[in-house]
Every structure is written in C-alpha cells, then in structure tokens.
Amino acid sequence: MMNRQRLIRFGGMAFIGSGLLFLAQYLFLRPVPAPPLEDAALLSWLSEWRFQLSMADEVLFFAAVLLIPSIAALYRLLVQVNPVLTVFGCGLLAVSVPVYIVLVIILGRLVYPVYGIELTPESYRLIISFYYGGVHCVALVVGIATILLSLVIWKSGLGTFTAALGLLTGVFDLIGSYPWLLGEGMILISQLLFAGWFVMLGVNMRMIATRGTD
Fold it and tell me: Hey, which of 70, 107, 181, 201 would disulfide with 57, CB 3.0 to 4.6 Å?
C-alpha cells in the first residue's frame, strides 16, 4: 500500500513537471511564425528562430519522459474504477511518448548540426512537414486519451472538476489538432488547457496520496 501511495505521489509530481514543460514548449514556439516556402527565406527563418526551436526541442524531451511515471501512477489509481477505459486511455497516452520523442529528433534536426552534414532547403521542408504531421497525430491520440480518462476520473476520487476540465481539454486537443483551420486564439486555448490539466491532475494525485498516508 505504501509503495502504491509513493508511486501516485511521484506520478503526481511528474504530471506537474510535464505540464509545466509542455507549457514552456508552447511559449517558446508561440512567437515563431509559419515557415516560408522560398529557399532563401526558409534558411533565414531557421537562423532567426534557432534559439526558440532548440529550447522547445529540449523541454519537449523532458516533458515526454516525465509522462512515463505519470501514466504508471494514473493507471494504478484508476484501474479499479474502470479497467477497460483506464487501459485504453493510459495505453493511448503511453503511445504518445515515443511520438513525442520522434518529434524531438525531427525538431532537433532543424537546429542542431550533425557531423557537418548540410541539408538542402528541400530537405528542411520535408522535415518540417514530418514535424507538423507528428504534431497532428499526437494531438489526436492525446485528445482521445484525455476524454477516456476523464470519464473514469469522474467516478474516482480525483474530483468532478478535474474530470470536467479533462473533457474540455480533450475536445480542444482534438480541435487543436487542425491548426490550419483555426485562429491563433483557439490554438492558444487548446495548449493552455492541455498543460493546465496535467498540472491539476498532478496536484490532485499528490493530495490523494498524502491523504492515503495520513
């Protein structure tokens, strides 16, 4: 029992850290405009925004890694409430981790030199298209996972407000997976909800673990 409470407490801390790091990544990328198509303009864009892209790349790695203990702890907390939805939701979240790591590799290739290998503007355009495709995919996966887990959270000790915020977050994740159809305001709301839900979930998990050890 004590080990379970420690896992939930640590998972809560990891969720908080992951949410804050995802928020930092969004803030680093927010001022970066869409990449231009012309060769010279694209190379200039990469040079001008190299710092923001590199910092977003670094924090994304740690945000994804922190999801591993977070998912394990959330599974232990929710599996007895609804095993089917918990396995499905946590499984989808687990799938998102390697996708995020691949995005780290792709984004890093835009800003970090590799043994002096020079890329052409056409190669950069291909890498950028892979990145946006990965972002679209992971937003769909996380959005569905968030909705499923929120349905379980509704019946758990994590609270109805956390569940309601999770449902709203999941819907906005799905909407935000189509950024080319939305304005900047909707995308910002989606990103803030995503990070905020992770932080709130982590705080509530730590509270439950603390009460369990009293």
Answer: 107
Q: Is 45 helix (H, G, I), strand (E, B) or coil?
A: helix
The rounded distance, in Å, linking the Cα atoms of 136 and 176 is: 8
Closest among 211, 212, 175, 214 to 191, alpha carbons compared: 175
Residue 13's pLDDT is what?
95
**17, 24, 72, 81, 160 from 153: Cα distances, Å:** 20, 26, 15, 8, 7
Q: How far is Cα 51 from Cα 201, in angstroms, rounded to an integer?
A: 31
Between CA 65 and CA 81 the distance in angstroms is 26
Instruction: Quote the CA–CA distance of 86 and 91 in Å, as a whole number.
Output: 8
**Contacts of 104-113 spanning 24+ positions with Cβ under 8 A:** 104/57, 104/60, 104/61, 104/64, 106/130, 106/131, 106/134, 107/53, 107/56, 107/57, 107/60, 107/131, 108/54, 108/57, 110/46, 110/53, 111/46, 111/50, 111/53, 111/54, 111/57, 112/54
Q: What is the pTM of this model?
A: 0.91
